[in-house]
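Reviewer 2 asked us to include a model.

Predict the structure of this chain.
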Amino acid sequence: MRQVKLFKGVEAEIGSLESEVNSWIRESQVDVVGVRGNIAPQSTGGPSTGQRFTPSDILIIVEYETSSP
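Predicted model (structure tokens):
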């Protein structure tokens, strides 16, 4: 049966998001069918943050196959 697992993170912490996805794949021992991702458009950070743009949200979708229904 095909299922999906969603992961959400921010652009500034992409390394930890990558580690989270890879750890889940290893620990779950599932057969990954595909991985897709999307990054939200950047918005301005404003003067209070001191940044020109705030980190964008990142969505990772892992499609996997499992033997149990």
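The first helix runs from residue 14 to 28. The chain has a mean pLDDT of 89. We have added this to the supplementary material.
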